[in-house]
Each structure stands twice: as C-alpha cells, then as structure tokens.
C-alpha cells in the first residue's frame, strides 16, 4: 500500500517569513498566500511524517545526506530573527528504511551522525531551506515527525533514483507521509538579481513548472547542462528527487503560484497522490 498522500514544491527565501520580510512581504504576497494554502491542504491530509529535501543543508559532492539525530531543530538567527524556530522529532523508522532502500538502488547516502558532523565540521541544525517551508507547515498545525534530507551534487538521474528509493521506503511503513521539495528556480530573472541577469531564466522556470504539472521527468532530465548553469537555479535536484518519489503513481499537480519580484523565481506546486488501495483517503 502506498502511504504517500501529497507532495509539494516550496521556495525558501527567508523574506517570505513575516518576522524577516516585514514591509517587503507585500512584494511576494502571492508566494506567501500559496505557501499558506499548500500547508493547509497538506495538513488536511493528516500526514504523520513529512520528508523534506533541501539544497542548503550539508551538501556532499558525490552523495546525498540524511539527518539521523532523534530531534531536529533550526531557526533563522542568520537572518536576524533567532526567535523564529521550528523543532520536530525524527521519524527514525522511515530513516532506516530510506537508508536501506538507497543502498539497494546504489544511491550514495551519508548518515549525518554527530561523528560525521565533527569530521566535516557540519552544523546539524535544520538549514533555512528546511526551516522556511516548515514554518508554514507548523503554522498550519503540523506536529508530526520529520525526515530531513540534503541534496548531493550527484547526477540528476541519481537524484531521481533516490526519490524512487524513498517512495519504496514510504510504502513499507504504516504511516501517512507528505514530501516537500524545497527549492528556488532561476536566480537570474532581473538585471539586479543576486546572480545577474539571463534572458533564459524565465524560459527555464516555465519549462520546469510545466514539467512538474505534466509529470514530465524526461523534460527535466534532458535540459542542457549549459542551460541549467545559465539559469542559476537551486531547485532542480530537489524537484527531480520529488519526481522520483512520485514515479509510477497517479497524480494531480497544480501550480499554486509563481513570481520573481527580487529576480529569483519562487514557484509553489501541490501534487496530490491518487491511491486506489487507500479507500478512506481524500485523494483516492
């Protein structure tokens, strides 16, 4: 039985947090409202665990990583608001299944233990790529468990395979699970954008959002590497992971919002999973 109930793409600019954004929040009103809506709809599905993948945690060149500490917490102190914090218990059972399935499919996965953190001088707290989406989920009332994953700089196809491993792991536990891909789109939408301007940034964002809506994995995997580089994105690997999690399932995707007022593309997509084996599910 597939226990995956819903998935989402969510951006992670700290400015979309009211305590950080202040008066600037009005400039990304559509993003904030869509984040609230996505969080509310996910919470209505009553997930017991949320799996979140972020591009801003500990990133290894040849492996993804997964947090194994029993309690995960993080805040936005780096952005001037240490009081904005979230904390969740780790779903240790799902973590163990993910590790096992990743190994079975040949995906390199680092377990972020205290010793590994010391060896690589890593911070085990939740990064802002996780904290920002989780802020909205917590605000919507989610109080369940968490699995925190960070991307690796491995090939895009391997990130998709890793998502397939997580799909199998989720199917092996008797829990309802939602999966969040945290990622921004092109960082080059305007002349004053953080990474400079490229006329292809908007083109990249349109392609990626269309691929999500149509569940077109081939379109994502066939993007020219030079095009990806020119777009200056951080969300493609989380998105391909998400596509792997959803691989082979009957889904319905909706793009709730897209905007880029600061030169970075913020897209929010909600994907519901139709599971004929779960007769009592809302999406069944």
Write the layout of secondary structure elements.
Elements: E1 4-10, H1 18-21, H2 29-44, E2 49-54, E3 64-67, E4 71-76, E5 81-89, H3 92-104, E6 109-112, H4 114-120, H5 128-139, E7 145-150, H6 156-171, E8 177-182, H7 200-214, H8 217-221, H9 225-231, H10 236-245, E9 250-259, E10 266-274
Parallel strand pairs: 1-8, 2-7, 2-8, 3-6
Antiparallel strand pairs: 1-10, 3-7, 4-5, 9-10
Structure write-up:
- By secondary structure, the protein is of the alpha/beta class.
- 37% of the residues lie in helices and 24% in strands.
- The chain contains 10 helices and 10 strands.
- A hairpin with a 6-residue loop joins strand 9 and strand 10 (266-274).
- The strands form 2 sheets. It has an 8-stranded mixed β-sheet. Strands 4-5 form a two-stranded antiparallel sheet.
- Helix 2 (29-44) packs across helix 5 (128-139) and helix 7 packs across helix 9.
- The longest helix has 16 residues, at 29-44.
- The chain has a single domain (4-274), classed as LigB-like (Protocatechuate 4,5-dioxygenase, Chain B).
Overall structural domain count: 1
Secondary-structure-based class equals alpha/beta
Number of strands: 10
Number of helices: 10
What is the radius of gyration? Answer: 17 Å
Strand content: 15-25%
Mean pLDDT: 94
Report the major sheet. Answer: 8 strands, mixed
| CATH architectural group | 3-Layer(aba) Sandwich
**CATH topology term:** Protocatechuate 4,5-dioxygenase, Chain B
Taking pLDDT < 50 over at least 5 consecutive residues as the criterion, the unreliable ranges are 276-284
